[in-house]
Amino acid sequence: MSSALPYKKGLHSIDPYIPGKRLEEVVKELGLSKVIKLASNENPLGCSPRVPEAAVAVLQAPSRYPDGGNSELKAELSRLTGLGPQQFVIGAGSFELIAFVAETFIGPGDEAIMPTPSFSWYGTVTKLQEGRIIQVPLTTHNVDLDAIKREITAKTKVIWLCNPNNPTGTIFTDEQLRRFLEDIPSSIVVAMDEAYCDFVTGGQGYPDTLNWIGRYPNLIVLRTFSKIYGLASLRIGYAAASEETADYMNRCRQIFNVNAVAQASALAGLKDAGFRERVYENNRLGKEYFYKTFGELGLDYIPTEASFIMVHTGQDSDTLYQQLLKEGVIIRPGSAYGMREWLRISIGTMEENRIFIEALRKVLKAPEAAGSSKN
Length: 375
Description:
Shape: globular
Cofactor: pyridoxal 5'-phosphate
CATH class of the largest domain: Alpha Beta
Family: Belongs to the class-II pyridoxal-phosphate-dependent aminotransferase family. Histidinol-phosphate aminotransferase subfamily.
CATH superfamily of the largest domain: Type I PLP-dependent aspartate aminotransferase-like (Major domain)
Radius of gyration: 21 Å
Strand content: 15-25%
Helix content: 25-40%
Subunit structure: Homodimer.
Pathway: Amino-acid biosynthesis; L-histidine biosynthesis; L-histidine from 5-phospho-alpha-D-ribose 1-diphosphate: step 7/9
Strand order of the largest sheet: 2-8-7-6-5-3-4
Catalytic activity: L-histidinol phosphate + 2-oxoglutarate = 3-(imidazol-4-yl)-2-oxopropyl phosphate + L-glutamate
CATH architecture of the largest domain: 3-Layer(aba) Sandwich
CATH topology of the largest domain: Aspartate Aminotransferase, domain 2
C-alpha cells in the first residue's frame, strides 16, 4: 500500500548508495578463509601509528563532548596551508561536506553540473535539495571542462568537479582549471573534490587549488582523511573556502558532527609526514606493477593519478566481479559507472596486487567468462 506521508520530491529519483562488500560479509557468504578487498579505495597500509595512540588518549574521557569548533584541527590546517582557521569547515568525510555545499547553494529548480562518470554523491545531494543535475560525459576518460562550460545557464548554481576523477583516475591541469575559472561567472560555485590529490605523481601540472581561494572566492576545495591518512572508518574531512562561504556552510553543520576520536586522529595523521610518504610510494609502485602486468595480459587500462585503476577486460564486469569474489578478491565492477567491460581496482599492498592479478588470470581463462563478452 502506498503511503500518504509527505516525502520530499527529490527522494523519488534517488537510488540508495551501495558501498563495496565488506570482507567479513564475503568470508561468511562464501566460506573462504582469506579474502582481500580492492573495492573501496581504502588505505592498504592502515593508518599512522600515531593515530591509535591519539585515539586511546581521547577515550580516557568519553563522557565529554568533542570540540564543536574543531579548533585544534583547524589551527594545524591553517599552519600547513597558510589559510585562516575561519576558512575551514570540518565534516564527517567528503560525503557530509558535499552535502553541506548542496544545502548551502542549491534550491528547488536550481541546476548543478557534473562530469559523468564521476562520484555519484554529487547527483544525490543535488536531488535531495530538489535541484536538477546536468551530466556531461567524459572525453577519452577525462573531465571535459569546455563541455561543462557550454552547459552553464542562468539556473546553474554549482559545478561539481572531481580531480583526480573517480572512477577514471584522470586529472585536469593547473592551466586547464585556471582558464576554466576565469571563464565562468563568479556567482557559480565550483566544488573541487580532491579526495585523491595526495596520490598524484609529481610533474603532472596538478593545480594548487588551496592557494587559489583568495583569487576565486567561488572555489570550494574538499579533502578527506579517509584515503592517504587511512581514517575511513572515523569519517572526517575538510572543506577550504573563503571566510564568508565557510561561515555559511558551517551553519548547515550539526554542532558536534565530528567526534573527538576522529578529530584527534586527523591531527595525529597530519603530523606524520613519513607515513604519508610510505603510502604514496606503495601506491606508485603498485600502479607501475599494474601497468606492466596489464600490458603483458594485453588489457587496456587508464593511467591513473589516484589510488585505484580502471582496466578494460572486454567481458561483462558483473560476471567477472562474481567470479573474482569466489577467488577471494573484492573489486568494483565498472557497471556501477556505466562502464560494463571495465573493472575498478583499488591499489593494495604488493602482495594483494599479485593475488588479484593471479585471480584475474584465472577468471579470464574460465569458459563462463569467455562466453560473457558483450559487443
